[in-house]
Amino acid sequence: xxxxxxxxxxxxxxxxxxxxxxxxxxxxxxxxxxxxxxxxxxxxxxxxxxxxxxxxxxxxxxxxxxxxxxxxxxxxxxxxxxxxxxxxxxxxxxxxxxxxxxxxxxxxxxxxxxxxxxxxxxxxxxxxxxxxxxxxxxxxxxxxxxxxxxxxxxxxxxxxxxxxxxxxxxxxxxxxxxxxxxxxxxxxxxxxxxxxxxxxxxxxxxxxxxxxxxxxxxxxxxxxxxxxxxxxxxxxxxxxxxxxxxxxxxxxxxxxxxxxxxxxxxxxxxxxxxxxxxxxxxxxxxxxxxxxxxxxxxxxxxxxxxxxxxxxxxxxxxxxxxxxxxxxxxxxxxxxxxxxxxxxxxxxxxxxxxxxxxxxxxxxxxx
Length: 367
What we know:
With about 375 residues, the chain is an alpha/beta fold. Helix content is about 65%, strand content about 10%.
């Protein structure tokens, strides 16, 4: 092996890298993003999980139990319920992840050596529900030990709403559908427009009366149809193969899926204009779509359990809103608040991305 020839080839490659500063920047950006997202965004423990307490008994023992939950770093008591109707509404709208019910007879039963409390869990995220269950038992046991009484004196009766069997696939499958749609929709659009720019076909289009908007609509239409067929196939597979219940309206699911697909396709179109070639476009899709959709959308890891700066960053991730919609429609049958808040956020993102594409689309040379 001739070292001089090796160094010559290496020097040539360095010049190529320096000429392609976007690819070089991406090489440094990807590891940095992965380190930050994995380091800050993923937590396998609970911190300040939002819970509510329905204290039917107002005696000292009940207040002591409620105070221990308020003092625990694993929980944040965000609601104090007056009745079970308010408790149900809070869990339906995902205001709280769990609710503790301290019954009327708690003090009397505690004196008799056999008190019990009820824990109602939101089963939309089975993994988070399991973590909550373990932390609640830990708090109850710590309280019993602090009082010098056996932990069996207070038992926790648990009920999991919307996912009574605690099946993790109920939460995972709707989230996976979102990630598949996000990556495929963005990648298909990014590659097809980048291909036109890379091959020089855009130059020929400048001699036609085609406008930027018409070019975008024509490019997106076939892939939009393919994407919606993918959605239909994924939903059928979720129901028929994985036994995930679809408790909401199929029309609602189709509508929000179409909106999300338009958002990610507009995102892909904008990426392709910035990249200019298929290789860089595919790399940018992985960084801007796949990683955020996997880690910052709430599909796998609860957003509320992330640090506040990371939670703010998730507001820019379209998959965040569709994950909430998909899980709510599949598992809860959705609620008006969840539906319109997330649909509104996706609509705003679609408007911003569409406007940005039309502005950035000037590089195509079309009207």
